[in-house]
Amino acid sequence: xxxxxxxxxxxxxxxxxxxxxxxxxxxxxxxxxxxxxxxxxxxxxxxxxxxxxxxxxxxxxxxxxxxxxxxxxxxxxxxxxxxxxxxxxxxxxxxxxxxxxxxxxxxxxxxxxxxxxxxxxxxxxxxxxxxxxxxxxxxxxxxxxxxxxxxxxxxxxxxxxxxxxxxxxxxxxxxxxxxxxxxxxxxxxxxxxxxxxxxxxxxxxxxxxxxxxxxxxxxxxxxxxxxxxxxxxxxxxxxxxxxx
Length: 244
Ligand SMILES: NC(=O)c1ccc[n+]([C@@H]2O[C@H](COP(=O)([O-])OP(=O)(O)OC[C@H]3O[C@@H](n4cnc5c(N)ncnc54)[C@H](O)[C@@H]3O)[C@@H](O)[C@H]2O)c1
Known about the structure:
CATH superfamily: NAD(P)-binding Rossmann-like Domain
Bound molecules: nicotinamide-adenine-dinucleotide
Strand order of the largest sheet: 3-2-1-4-5-6-7
């Protein structure tokens, strides 16, 4: 399948896990991919892997906790690319403290990286997104069911899906569609670093997905095959949320 020939795409958090797999998938299907992330070595590795496979990619270093840096990076990227067909907002972070022990500075940081940066990216990118373009944001099953100690993360993901619904009301479906993917447990550094997973508070009992499983769903929603899907969240969790 080559659904993104002559298209341009941006993936935040493209240096690892689901973001990396999404960069590789979009590039394999013909897109020129802007890999956005903080880790220069990992970013260059992704670009190298794409180029070795015959694709096109560029790395942009950007810390999504820094609003001025987001603006600067996006101005540069849009000047380089001219326009953007696909925006994948994937980067996110978690904290692991109950509310009563939480420093609200951490609340602000999580909401800033996971939610505000997504809104800022949309503001900066949408004017450069042509007819037939698509935004896909990575949510989580934590938007629907959650565990203790991850409240800012769960709040950011619930709000992300609300933003997708709200922004779909402001976007013409023929111009730019916006949708979310809510992954379940996926084999990435974020999953195994989670102390709730390590100590069994969050049980990983069913199947664990591969980053490529999520990348496939993102590519579908970003493609013309999903032309009538707008404002939706696609749960990709191996059936986890369906369990009683
Ligand atoms: N792995 C899972 O089980 C799972 C489940 C549900 C949702 N998700 C979501 O999938 C997405 C990708 O996560 P992943 O599992 O691939 O983990 P990951 O740790 O491999 O990827 C997260 C990425 O976000 C980047 N990031 C975090 N803070 C950043 C900042 N300030 N600036 C720039 N980049 C920043 C990280 O550097 C990393 O590349 C996230 O939105 C996460 O919430 C993951």
